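DM from R.C. (forwarded with permission)

"hey, sorry to bug you on a friday — could you get me a structure for this? deadline for the figure draft is monday and I only need the backbone to look sensible"
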Amino acid sequence: MSQEIRNLDGQYRHGQVFLQWEEHALPQDTTLQVWSSEKPFSEPGAEKTLLAANIHQGSARDWWQDPASFFKDAEPAPPAGFVIQDGGQPLNPRNGLHVHTVPRSGDGERYYAITWQSESGNVKEQPFLPGQNCLSAPLAVKFAQVLPVSLQSPPLKRGDGLGKALVLSFHGRGGGAGVNQKTGQPTGTHLWFADANQGWREGLPYKFNLSITDQEVRISPFDRTWINRPLLESPDARDHVPAVCSFWSGYNTNIAQNTNTTELQVDIFVERYLLALIDWAQNWLGADSNRCYLTGASMGGSVGISLGLHYPERFAAIHAMVPIYRYTWEECSTSKAVSARRLACASGPLQDRPAKVRANGKNFLEYMDGALNINRPLVDTPPIFATNGRRDGSIPWVNNPPFYQAANDARQAFAVFWNDGAHGMSSTAPDDVKQWGQDIFQYRLDQSFPAFSNCTDNRKYGTGDPADGDITGWINRGLRWSDIKDTRWEYSITLQADHPEIRYPVRTDVTLRRLQLFRVHPGETLTLNLGRGGESTLTVPEDGLLTLRSLEFPDAQPLAITIRRTPDATRKSNLPGSERPRRPYHDLDWSTAVRVKSTTHVHVTSNKRLREALAAGLDFLTISNYYPSAPYYPIAEFTPNYYLFHQQHPIIDKDWKLVHPPFDWNQIVGQWKDKLPPDLQKRLPFKEAAPFDPLPPGILEAPNAEHHSFRDSSAHLNSPGSLYRSGHFDARNKFLVTDHGWPVGNRRFWRDACDEMIAELLFEDGGGVTINHPHWSNMPLRLVINMLDYDARILGIEVYNHSAQVGRKTGWSEQYWDNILSTGRQCFGFFVPDWYFSPEDGCAMNILLVQERSAQACLQAYRKGNWYGCLKGNGLGFDKITFDGKRITAAVNRPATLKVISRQGTVLESTGQEIAFELSPEEYPNHVFLRLTASDGSGECIFSQPFML
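My reply, with the result:
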């Protein structure tokens, strides 16, 4: 029989390509490679991309069902194949399988191929043979939300976890096997195929358990990675199997061959896999992104510490029983273990030479050092509730006190109870400590909380010697809070100190964390009322942290605290806007509506660009320039480099201090002119350009700018209708302005910046803030939701950004839009050219529907949702859209393919000029929203605003 691969087959589903093939008479040492190309592999000059290498034979075998994968002396089970589709049949375990995840910029048609090589067979690479080891026809693929394979019925439906808390529950070092060691029965409810960033090679299968109750979505992942060999160099014999444990972090990038490499390089594969699971649960199942919790014991508690402190913006709170906080080589008289050896199992001989994290070159042990990670006072780390035993034989006590001290010094939220127990001590903790496992659910990412430090009721944990300090003790035990009020002008909270062993009076410092609306600034003077006495003043220190020192609790009675600030009389009133209209077009007379072509995101930096924008057909200009982020309005009064000479807005320096104008940039940059490249030196002194041309009659305009580089977010936000200005001219530090102490961008907290944008709106009832290119910006869904919840005048997201699509294929955020809408939040969708438009491609734009042709009416239309978006602006349009609560209808002005879309996807499709879809109120929870699209053969597609049910 010839040695070959036959019958390669490929299927695309949910952002992934499932490739299957037959393997015939291949040598025992064969490894396989997966390739991709935009052209047929047989075509001369076809550019090939290697997607994965070192794939073993029989990769369709489900090793999760084999006890020998996990237990050193177990008898192998009969081979079973992977199930790769909900309700599907197992594959032939003798065949091959690879699952490729389409990257963000991978949309399009692609060919795929499999080759093999063998040293013993003297085959370096197999040729590409269409119809045999190459696909004869391309697959249409696109970046999309990856979905796990359900191994149990019924399969999941989108939105099954809508609004529920998300809990990640982690097992300890002995867990994670895919079969029960005693019964041999498979475990795990779902299978996840990893992308190239989630494992040593693409396509590795992970398993997890999933349960959904009325209150929560609970994911229990399995920490096992297939390396196709026993990890014999590991100091832990439990790893002398082909499915190894990573200790929930990362491992040597060469783990499939040998971890005893000359240079130790570790990649945080497993952390990225866990974050991907969270994204799926929040984006597709609909779990509440503000209520994500980590819980576990031993190794499972350790990942709570490491993951929670590496990504503090993702997790509301952590419950960690007997965790490792630091990974060192320090020994302890009560423990047989050395914590750093836990990481050496999968990373290599860390004691002989340091390992570096591939992404940043950081020492791996430092990356995993919780004491370093929590000691960041300006970062709101998740509250941690923990237990430890002084005689824990697995978790050395010596590493705990440095973490306890660091958490207290940084004024982070941390509570711990310890006793003289061993590894199972959590079961002997007092009832109020056991309650911590439920107390974590009080915390949310969109709600502030108090962090207690320097509490006089704390016990002494000592130096790290198990004999030093109080045998039984705690930190911040019994400190509780309730009744938070967090507004722009007032913050109040009720605190209490009470537990069975407390000694009054108790004094503690309280730092207010995750402040939402009540954001303070260094030097600001506040009024403080402690409830039990008179008022006093409080000045915010330079670090900006609002800490109340030495609050006293003489008894168990609650203490009510109120902090107020005085409104700035020079600022416009900026009360939160009313809700975004849930039913757009409700007050619109379609028969008399005027259509105005507009966009909220277009850069016009020269008269040439201005002429191109007008030639694209834009009738209403809201130019969104940046560097600086300032309006060019009215444009005829400005020059392209106007703000180089007339900047009258402040900037924030490297020390976060506000620097006020005037700014003579010629004089400022001239101070370091000799350090500039010669070509830039020649541009000094700066000379003001000629003004922009006047707009043609009938062209409307309003102020706008693109703001970016916020203190707490990488978002880009536009502000159509606002006169607000921020930043300076020096994009990408060409003239070394950043190097000399004035970094680029807005540099305010995004909430403060949005307040400023809204306060400077030209018309109180029109315009607002847009969230730009969320896909390109890789914005967490939670951040966008928090922005939308913050103020109704934050209108929505860019669903399509043409420049991002042309440049990086990251311009589409339609799935992201539906993920937001599926939470029940109204979010308007914008369609913009950004930098790029052309006569060939047309111009992405928003068609405003107004009763009169004025700038104010156009901005009001944006506020109300009275517009539809389009990709090209070539004339296809909605003639009418209606929804009476039971029936949605639409008509377009020329034949097209029309769709009605809900949380369930496309629920109706028809061809022609009209569409109608009916539903009853009882069906609202299944659909959540309705929106419409229409497309034709020209490449045009138009999008209605959503109707929320």
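R.C.: lifesaver. The radius of gyration is 30 Å.
me: no worries. The mean pLDDT is 94.
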